[in-house]
């Protein structure tokens, strides 16, 4: 009896260790792509900046490039099958900023994602390319270990137009992705999956990608969104109908598992909470009742964060995703979901920003300016020297009430201590003090996300909607600045110091 019980416990432990993978110090034996392979639908692309998607994978997960000297570094898992070694990134990117240049393909097919080229639409970077993601903008933990996701601000995009083994025509395929279900917008189109090889709109049915967001131009589901939909080109589909399919729910788990799969005249949308529970099926049926989508004309390129024609209006965050050859069974996907839950994604506790509701002052850390604080005079915001001998008004002008971010509660907004209802916001990249007009643009422009100070002191505050820009003082004025760029305040010299602020007790409590 005792032997039988021990045997059962051992078998159970094996299953748990196979599922948990990155949550333990042991290498995982069965990760998502092992599960897909066992189901007869192997991964043909496997992308993640957070963990290995095969139990034996120990190669590079992604590559970062730092602004200080333009050199690059590959980031690998800490061991085969495990979580990303983000400490390597932190060391490499200390005192500067980094972008994600490559998201490697773990499937062995070299279907890596790199900076998306111009297509039907140009991106904002040089030559019409899309922007690369800020490598530190999406910190999370996996199994308690700090890792980074891919933060897609509008304008950011990755692509591979020359893939190997990805479904074309009406061939069957599946895909899943893990997104931040609280980071989305109504721009076109935060996608991950199959797209055109020439970055152009080649007509209905030339794409099959997972979409996440709340755009209502094409299809939509129940409620106000966001929804998981399928981007099939010239249409985001929530089911068989062109517009409303109420079986597709609004869904916004902080960590969201999103699935789209398709085979001849059959496709499905599935999804669930990547932190717990099982998947729901939101559509499972025939191709849309709109001409051009049956049979499909998939082209087999891979996109992340953009539409098939390089539309670059969307926002979102990506942690991991795969594409398969063949139409995965629900049972296979359910096992993948169990693996994802066991991997234990969580929000990062490491971004220690100021407490919401507290009043603070923000002191510059650049050697020139360590007695200067972010202050306002009416609408004008600058750094000012403040000391005990300043007037009460000058002290209050340098004091800020920390609010939950108007555009994201994971970040912050700073309300003036002595001008209630007015917040620091950027406009044309300069920070000023303005009354909250209730618009979503104001909310975005007035929201800043805290990271460890780029020069090792205090905190740096990243703009929510311009993810490569941080609050910076330059000639004593205050901007959102990137580390290098066309504006004077984007100068690389002293950038890390100028964007680092010490949160102090307020001059006016
Ligand atoms: O299908 C929706 C979008 O329409 C595609 O992503 C894009 O290529 C086109 O603009």
How does this structure look, described?
Helix 2 (32-38) runs antiparallel to helix 4 (330-343). Strand 16 and strand 17 (280-285) form a beta hairpin. The strands form eight sheets. The protein has a ten-stranded antiparallel sheet with strand order 3-2-4-5-9-18-11-12-13-14, covered by helices on one side. Strands 1, 8, 10, 15, 16, 17 and 19 form a seven-stranded antiparallel sheet that branches. It is mainly beta and 509 residues long. 12% of the residues lie in helices and 32% in strands. Alpha-L-arabinofuranose binds next to loops.
The dominant shape is elongated
Terminal Cα span: 68 Å
Count the helices. How many? 7
Q: Tell me about the biggest sheet? A: 10 strands, antiparallel
Beta content: 25-35%
CA-based gyration radius:
24 Å
Poorly predicted parts: 1-28
Structural class, judged by helices and strands?
A: mainly beta
Largest sheet, spatial ordering of strands: 3-2-4-5-9-18-11-12-13-14
- Ligands in the structure? alpha-L-arabinofuranose
Query: Total number of β-strand segments?
Result: 32
How much helical structure, as a percent, in the residues? 10-25%
Estimate the mean pLDDT confidence: 93
